[in-house]
Amino acid sequence: MPSTSSSAWSSASDRSSNRSSNKRRRPSKSLLAVLTLACLTAITVDYQRDESSPFEPARGALGDVLGPVQERAAVVARPLHEIPGFFEANQSLRSDIAKLQAENANLRGQLATTSEVRYRAAELDGLLQASRTSGFALVPARVVAVGPAQSFSFTVTIDAGTSSGIQPDMTVINNEGLVGRVTEASRSSATVLLVIDQESVVGARLGSNAEVGFLQGRGDIGGDGRLDLDLVDDSETPGKNDVVVTWGSNNGSPYVAGVPIGSVEAVFSSPREQAKHAVIKPFVDFSSLDLVGVVVNADTEGDRPVIQAGEIPADETDDEEGR
Amino acid sequence: MPLARALTFTLVLLFAVVLQVSFFSFFSYDGVVPNLVLLVVVAAALTRGPELAAVLGFVGGMAIDLVPPADHVAGRWALALVLVGYVAGRVRQDAGRSTLVALGTVAAASFVGTSVFALSGMLLRDPAIPVGEALQVIPTALLYDLLLAPFVLPPAMRMFKRMQPQQQVAY
């Protein structure tokens, strides 16, 4: 503001600020009422959450438009995220190496001395391999957005959608175990409900005795994120460290059978309910999710290669000849 | 001109939502990320008063509710942020323009916003949020919002001041 006009300006400003503060002392209540009503209407309309909700197209459209933007933002954030790692550097890495060497020697000793253990290890390996390769075809995808904890629901966006053959109610896994299921798919992105979400219930089976039960998330994402298992048969007691896998449902939707979920950490029983209640530590680290795979039909055609049952995409030609 | 302004504000809010879920998710603390949309709404409230802030709160809240990976009932964040914008705008009239008041407003806004959202979730059972978890998340979110406020508020407030309609620039 030029100084020559400053006196005129300030007097004008005094007058107008008086006027506007008078006006502002009573901000329009009707606007607040209208906006609050609009919110309540939106909540009411969307409450049933079925396909006919008018917000579903809006969600899809926003997913289509913002999916690529989210992808780019994630690409920018990933390397920044790794910067602290550089500073950890020598000291901790050296102690890590010493620890791992000791552990390695220890394990090697155990393996060499106990042939029975070795045999069982081989067998379990094979079993795991078999469960991994029992016909799962995967569409690889990366996590590009994570729902904030302030929203109290644990969902992520992945960068693959219907154009890669992904549909709602498909199982999402990563190399460690079950991640969740697809709840919504737009053209180039999809929303995945993580198993740790409160709303997520997974039919689960104990690895040791095939007892079935229901796993529910606790809605906690950190290192102590846990799941609760309630067995259908109350007389069974899950053993500690027992592995829990998915029970699976018809057509593998929403969950395919035999995906490892986690291991039993603790078992509680309440005399009143006569039911056993187990706490499961998931194999997947949900706070650092990145590469995941969506289980699809083996003959899915899409804009990105489908990893067929246990094959590495690099030898796709071998795969074709093999079959 | 009003249309251009509305478009700019919408784009700023959408950008804030995308940053919130895609960029800051890499720097989350126990899953909690700074609520950038809330900061933008508070900036609008501090510079332009409750009306614009409430409208921006509605648009920004709807964006949080609808942009994937959101999975809750649409309108819940909108409701929370409309209230935040209105309340923060009312606070501004009584207070001067000191940094401390701005930070206090951010803290109050963050507390009110996250709490209203959590309460609406408890009422609707969408999902049924345990009180313990809410009590854990709300302070973390508050601290993170305060931490980001010095970086987000000044540019946002400058933008809102610059984009004031002509007749009001005079005062």
UniProtKB/TrEMBL annotation, chain A:
Keywords: Cell shape, Coiled coil. This is Cell shape-determining protein MreC. Residues 148-295 form the Rod shape-determining protein MreC beta-barrel core domain. Involved in formation and maintenance of cell shape. Residues 1-20 have a biased composition (Low complexity). Residues 1-27 are annotated as: Disordered. PANTHER family: CELL SHAPE-DETERMINING PROTEIN MREC. Residues 90-117 form a coiled coil. Pfam families: MreC (PF04085). Belongs to the MreC family. One of its GO terms (cellular component) is plasma membrane. It comes from the Bacteria. GO terms for biological process: regulation of cell shape.
